[in-house]
Design goal:
Layout (H helix, E strand, L loop, with lengths): L7 E6 L5 H9 L3 E7 L14 E5 L5 H12 L12 H9 L6
Parallel strand pairs: 1-2, 2-3
Length: 100
């Protein structure tokens, strides 16, 4: 039986935050994508923990981002919100059925 594909985590932020979360996702074996606003291109991101960066204009609505993600990647969009701490993420990843 082949190994399951790594879970892709798309982090969307318009603030420079979540560095610990990004590191934790990568340490748990996830593929980490960061979508942020253009003005944060040179932010203090843990670049070693992010597989790909994407930049957007600040006025882009969340619904447009969700649709683009679904069409581009073909994967469901699961919203984690602010309450998704690195600890909660590791528990959810232990049971991958939460992401199907």
């Amino acid at each position: 039986m082949s190994e399951p594909r790594p879970i892709t985590i798309l982090c969307i932020t318009s603030y420079e935050k979540g560095q610990e979360f990004l590191r934790t996702c990568k340490n748990l074996g996830c593929r980490v994508l960061l979508l942020t606003v253009e003005k944060l291109r040179d932010g203090n991101w843990p670049r070693e923990s992010v597989d790909e960066f994407f930049f957007m204009p600040e006025e882009l609505p969340l619904q447009a981002i969700r649709l683009a993600w679904t069409l581009w990647v073909g994967l469901p969009f699961h919203r984690c919100e602010k309450s998704c701490t690195p600890r909660k993420l590791s528990i959810r990843l232990e049971n991958r059925s939460n992401f199907s």
